[in-house]
Specification:
Layout lengths: L1 H28 L4 H27 L3 H8 L5 H9 L1 H34 L5 H29 L1 H17 L24
Helix pairs in contact: 1-5, 2-5, 2-6, 2-7, 3-4, 4-7, 5-6
């Protein structure tokens, strides 16, 4: 039942974010020129790659490097520990939810760009334009995520700390993203007596 509730929650979250971002991007495409539309397209692709990197880093990282930082009260260290301890939820949100939404939005925006190009120059082939643009977006996405995964695994600590700093800034602004992010170091049971 708990798993079903989590899955339903992810579905509702994905549905809500998809509608909000789709409405926002479509409204923006209606008022900006063609070149900024391409910039918006690749910005969304870039966002999907960045979130995928964070998701991989969360699963590949370790909380040990952040214990000393938390002891020294470095901003973002507690949030970084929270990310590692909730790696499954973070990876699901970053890689699956945001990643899939970015992929869907990039396809929709690509189709809108092709339609605008056809309005400007109807001599172009719709099939050719759509195929070429989809191929470019797919190539950039795959290359970016491939490079990002290698970076996320080799430099997971740095990426997690940057993410933790961003969460810390969000919490300072009143945005509670890292729920229960208070640092609680793992301690030995004081009631356990050592055997002589």
């Amino acid at each position: 039942m708990k798993l079903l509730t989590q899955v339903m929650g992810i579905g509702v979250l994905t549905f809500s974010l998809s509608i909000i971002l789709s409405l926002g991007s479509n409204s923006l495409l209606g008022v900006i020129p063609l070149i900024p539309s391409f910039m918006l397209l690749f910005f969304i692709v870039f966002v999907g790659i960045i979130f995928d990197v964070v998701g991989v880093a969360a699963t590949a990282g370790s909380e040990k490097p952040f214990h000393a930082m938390a002891s020294n009260r470095l901003p973002g260290s507690k949030q970084s520990i929270w990310i590692v301890r909730n790696a499954d939820r973070v990876a699901t949100f970053c890689s699956d939810v945001v990643g899939d939404i970015a992929g869907t939005l990039s396809g929709a925006i690509g189709a809108a760009i092709v339609f605008r190009i056809l309005l400007i120059g109807p001599r172009f082939s719709e099939t050719l334009l759509t195929t070429v643009l989809i191929g470019i977006v797919a190539a950039v996405t795959v290359m970016g995520k491939s490079m990002g995964k290698s970076l996320a695994i080799s430099r997971s600590t740095e990426i997690l700390y940057i993410s933790g700093r961003l969460l810390h800034v969000g919490e300072q602004m009143g945005i509670k993203i890292a729920i229960n992010s208070k640092y609680k170091p793992k301690t030995k049971n004081p009631n356990k007596r050592s055997r002589k």
